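User: Let's play a game. I give you a shape written as tokens, and you guess the letters that built it. Ready? Here's round one.
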């Protein structure tokens, strides 16, 4: 049997990079993609260190032409597509009153419509292979968080989309799973591209709450709950290889506890009380 072919989006750093390398070590022929090929240095270095060969290609998940070109190229060169890991995403920090509507639309375009478009392009081939569709979401896909309205809205949409798709995909032989990391030490936080000083200066009446929230985030991204990309990648690959992976997979005990607050909170009071405390 030929190596199963896996396409990973957002592979230039973090979870995508680690997932691509670990999947290649686990026997997949990995097509690792990123929007800008000029950022492939860390991925190539990690692949060399791991002793694996990756097929690295350009892919912009917000471009229909880029998606079509990439998927067609994979099929032309490898003859099949057995699995897709939707990992590409972008953070955004801000609240709706102060955020340009175009910014909010772009967050949805990358984090939600990018997943939908990639899934649509891959499904005929995953169906033919009886394959896997794995998507990296976030605990923010279950619990809405202050100053993350746009990002959490996109991740909520992703999870609703995939939870609805899962039984339909299963009926035609495709397994769907969602990965929900908590705080992870990746370039994702840096990629939010926020000038915190400028953010405070423009926050107006929201400044005290924003400062409290930022202080909490900084503690979360430096404490014992912080995971490495490699730890999350292990669960991504487990979802690819397990006989019957769970639909929703939290990546740490902290993430399990955090998400369970929402899943057990029928009237929403527990979540709102919890997140309100972050702003005090």
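Assistant: Ready! My guess for every position:
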């Amino acid at each position: 049997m030929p190596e199963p072919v896996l396409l990973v989006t957002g592979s230039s750093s973090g979870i995508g990079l680690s997932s691509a390398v670990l999947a290649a070590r686990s026997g997949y022929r990995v097509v690792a993609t990123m929007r800008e090929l000029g950022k492939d240095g860390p991925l190539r270095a990690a692949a060399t260190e791991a002793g694996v060969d990756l097929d690295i290609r350009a892919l912009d998940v917000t471009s229909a032409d880029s998606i079509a070109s990439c998927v067609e190229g994979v099929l032309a060169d490898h003859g099949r597509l057995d699995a897709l890991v939707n990992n590409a995403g972008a953070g955004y920090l801000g609240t709706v009153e102060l955020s340009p509507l175009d910014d909010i639309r772009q967050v949805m375009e990358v984090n939600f419509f990018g997943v939908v478009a990639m899934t649509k392009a891959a499904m005929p081939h995953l169906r033919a292979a009886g394959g896997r569709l794995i998507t990296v979401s976030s605990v923010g896909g279950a619990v809405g968080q202050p100053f993350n309205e746009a990002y959490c809205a996109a991740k909520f949409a992703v999870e609703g989309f995939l939870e609805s798709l899962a039984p339909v995909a299963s009926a035609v032989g495709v397994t769907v799973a969602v990965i929900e990391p908590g705080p992870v030490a990746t370039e994702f936080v840096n990629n939010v591209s926020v000038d915190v000083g400028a953010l405070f200066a423009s926050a107006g009446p929201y400044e005290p709450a924003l400062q409290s929230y930022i202080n909490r985030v900084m503690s979360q991204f430096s404490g014992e709950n912080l995971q490495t990309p490699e730890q999350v990648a292990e669960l991504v690959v487990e979802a690819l290889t397990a006989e019957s992976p769970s639909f929703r997979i939290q990546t740490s005990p902290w993430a399990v506890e955090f998400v369970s607050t929402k899943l057990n909170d029928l009237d929403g009071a527990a979540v709102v009380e919890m997140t309100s405390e972050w702003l005090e």
